[in-house]
Amino acid sequence: MNRPYASRQPKRPRIVVIGAGPTGLAAGLALAGQSQADWLVLEASARVGGLSGSLRDERGFVWDMGGHVFFSSWPGFMALLSGPGRATMVERRRRAKVFYSGHWVDFPFQSHFQTLPPALAAPLAQGLAQAPGATPGQSFAAWCAAVYGRPLAEAFFWPFNAKLWQTPLEGMSSLWVDRRVAPADGRADWGPNNHYFYPAQGGAGRPFVAMARALGDGLRLKAAVEAIDAGARTIHLADGQRLAWDGLISTMPLPRLLAMLRPAPPARALAAAARLKHNAMWLVGLGLAGPMPAEAAAWMYFPEPEFIFSRLTNMAAHGPANLPGADARRWRAYLAEVPAPGGSADQPAGLVQAVREGLIRAGLAQPGERPVSVFTRLLPVAYPAPTLGREDDLRLLHDFLEGLGVFSRGRLGGWLYEIGNMDHAARMGQEAVGRLLGAAGEPLWDEQWALLKQSM
Ligand SMILES: Cc1cc2nc3c(=O)[nH]c(=O)nc-3n(C[C@H](O)[C@H](O)[C@H](O)COP(=O)(O)OP(=O)(O)OC[C@H]3O[C@@H](n4cnc5c(N)ncnc54)[C@H](O)[C@@H]3O)c2cc1C
Questions:
Q1: Which residues form the signal peptide (predicted)?
Q2: Cβ distance 155 to 295 under 8 Å?
Q3: Which range marks the domain in which residue 422 is found?
Q4: Which of the listed residues 117, 238, 372, 421 has the most CB atoms within 10 Å of its CB?
């Protein structure tokens, strides 16, 4: 059991939260609702939401930072998003497809490949029937073949995941798959997101803008943290300011946090941080004239290497408000996710053209059709990879940081992909505040670690 953190703090501690994504905003709201501590939320950019933010371009197209939909088994999440003064959320049924060998197959692929022509479907069915099943400790690559059979692994799981994760699947663990990868049980409605919510206006980022408003001047934008002095307990901002803290919640990518600490962390902590793997992701949004074709689902997966993107989101399917004038008869908009190796910085030559060609190949755009709007954005750290041995490195890093009074939480702060969604992030933020103010533990974080410890 964790020792209540508050027992080690001054009477009225000052808690600083780094980042105004879902984790930092939920932490800020929890802090705003109490009187035991002074607090402040610092956000480097001029807008809130982090990876879950949205923007409207000059033509009126709304772009999310990758396809984002809302779902959760935690009732507190919807209360945060859609309480009084927050966003109006609209419920939708999932319509997701996979484009394979020139055919559209309903998602999950392993439950619908039988709709392919017999020559394509038969070997996949035979491989699935003969699959031996998973054994503990398998790499993700081995797990895919063991659960779905080699033909399905070769057709979908290996190429799709190699494209997405940008790291060898043999070096990834299979500990995270339970809530993230569908079984091959023929159920079309698999998964926590078979129904989902999406804001009626303003894209996925709208609820976070509303949450930020409730923080008032407790939130500072354009306040980039450059260094953290763990000895003097001060934060150094890019504009030269120094701020004191007693407890810190950081939501920036964990390796970046380690690199910012003064004095420098011990060599074994730096080595553990250096072993963490992640991908980067280019987002390319294309706004086009004309309505969406009937075959366009809300989101579409592309396992084959001929397509530069791993997934396309049809922004209009989440609601016409994502289009100029909310006019789905005049406009359509596709948001492509193009994974890249971690550390990528330069836009690949021909990126936008390659996305256009992919749309044409999938029948979603016509040759010669010119986009009326083009949006590009790099997410330098998008998916924290569940690599083999990651748990030991993460345990070492989080124990070291918590000893300094620093709680690194959220998708990239915690670095646990299993609890890397928006609802998990918000809950981690809220529960980290509870811990700093005296609660014995952080239920979501502790539960995930209890699961991982069984396999460590
Ligand atoms: C492509 C993609 C698709 C996704 N789809 C879904 C989905 O459909 N459903 C779902 O639930 N989740 C989805 N997610 C996950 C979701 O984006 C995250 O769960 C969520 O944004 C994590 O919130 P966070 O606050 O932990 O981190 P972030 O969103 O990364 O926010 C961190 C914030 O910290 C700020 N920051 C960083 N460094 C500093 C610094 N030095 N000083 C000050 N501020 C700093 C950043 O600017 C940022 O605003 C998706 C993620 C990706 C990448």
A1: none
A2: no
A3: 5-51+205-276+386-453
A4: 421
